[in-house]
Amino acid sequence: MYMNRTDLVQRLSESSSASREKHSVDEHGAALLKRIFQEEALEAVQQILLETLKDFSQKDLQKFRLLLFFTCFKMGLPQLRTNIDMADKLVVLMVDELGHQSVEVTMEVLTDMNKTDLVLRLSDFISVFKDKCQPSLIHTQDSSDWTKLEPEVNSTDADEAPTYSLQSAAGHFECRVSGLRWVCKGKTSFQYQFRSWEGHMERMESRQYMPAGPLMDVTVTAGKLNEVHLPHWICIDDIPDILDMFAVVHIDDCGDVVEKVSEVTPTHVKLTEPNFSIIGDIIRSIFPPKISCYMLMYYKLNTSFLKLHVYLIRQDPALEQEIAEKYCEKNDETKSDLKFKKIIKHPPDKYLQTERLFSLKADNTSAKIQPKELTLRYNRQNFYEVYVKNPGSELILTLVHTHPVNGEPADEPLWKCEIQADDHPESGRAEAAGSSVGATAASSLSAEEDTVDKHLSAQMQKALTVQSDRERILEMLEHLEKEELEKFKWLLVELKPIPKSKLEDAIICNLVDLMFGAYTQHTVEVTKKVFRKMNRNDLVQNLSDTSSRSKD
Q1: In this predicted model, which residue has the larger pLDDT, 339 or 4?
Q2: What is the mean pLDDT of residues 362-391?
Q3: 343 lies in a domain?
Q4: Under a CB-based contact definition with an 8 Å cutoff, are residues 148 and 75 in contact?
Q5: Domain residues for 275?
Q6: pLDDT for res 168
Q7: C-alpha 35 chain-centroid distance
Q8: Which 8-state DSSP code applies to residue 78?
Q9: At a CB cut-off of 8 Å and minimum separation 6, what does 504 contact?
């Protein structure tokens, strides 16, 4: 226009219009093909699982259902509460609820059942299926090819992020904590820490990139990783030219280096012959992206009502740790009314659109939620405060779009969570009313609180079966009286090698970190030894029982 070339302006307008029409047609066709292929793929998955489980006895099926429940809980997937006693109906339910992830879940359960023959058969079925289907669909099924390993966690400094250590022989492996995957041809070991993207964002934006996955400081201590697959939280369904959009950034004292990736799947990006430093996957700035999210929940202690802080954040472990540290600091305060404790629930199983408004709903009429609507910001700690005067035995929270767009059902749950009274045992208990019913309830409550102080409740024991050793020990220490906790620390000083100066002022979460840093895989046995010296054989037994059930 400034050059007075109105003829070229007109030509450009016409060509842009034609291009948009063509793109719309192409996009519609691609979406249609994708939906057809996905439906066929799910039908094939269903047939594969039916073939795998068809010869199950009723005893096998009962064990499979039990392990299925705990595996879904452990993986943060929808929990299939079902009494279905027929394999074919159970498979249909799994595929309907879990989609392609039903294969990964089944592999995990069969491994726990020691049915290696069926694991191999299922792997063979998947291999044949991959050969017959399009590669663009198959990379969503690769999670069953990876052996999952639990990292060893070390943390000796309260101000330092935990260090996760892993070692493996040759093969394909995945870290249960970070989702990091690696391929090696021989024995290897490495360690990593989660790092915050804060402080690096401006440089990423100057390169027209944004974070796409967790930032990790990785160090190989022995051997070599031939491939590494870094997890990402971006929905790639509608992103064209995926390989050109994704990259990996290496951050060190010499500056940032951006490296191209060799493959992108719905959950990971792949690097071959990788070099390590502080490393994370990035994507060219797109606005606004759909991302996988965490829902983190903390409740306030020692109140007759229930107060929750519910966070909606991107699925970034470093951001999760940052929030956890904030509440750990609150729990270090002398005033008990500042203390909070975490409630562990599953994350949303759908990608959520950033920059959209979301509302949190409760089924309890006494619930008050602020803010009424919240914008999912990519780089912020977004949270709702929920106040429930009379929480009762169950509270159901639901996350919905505040303003559904065309084609979206109104009030469709994006995330739904049942919170039982046992999820917040130290809060949300009604105060005694003047009536005899109220007095009885108060008396019963007082007795229950005394029991909780000295013994782990049956419900807590059940929950501990799916917790790590670290979480089990943390739970038990939190239920010690103040004098008992001091005695526990004093007995630890005798055992060494933790310095007395560090133990004296350590709050419970830091105390557990110090123990795992000093005693590593022997921490459970050391804890039992100290409990025996304290004549708390009930806790010794509880720790033995929960450890045994967890291993089973």
Answers
A1: 339
A2: 90
A3: yes
A4: no
A5: 148-284
A6: 93
A7: 28
A8: P
A9: 489
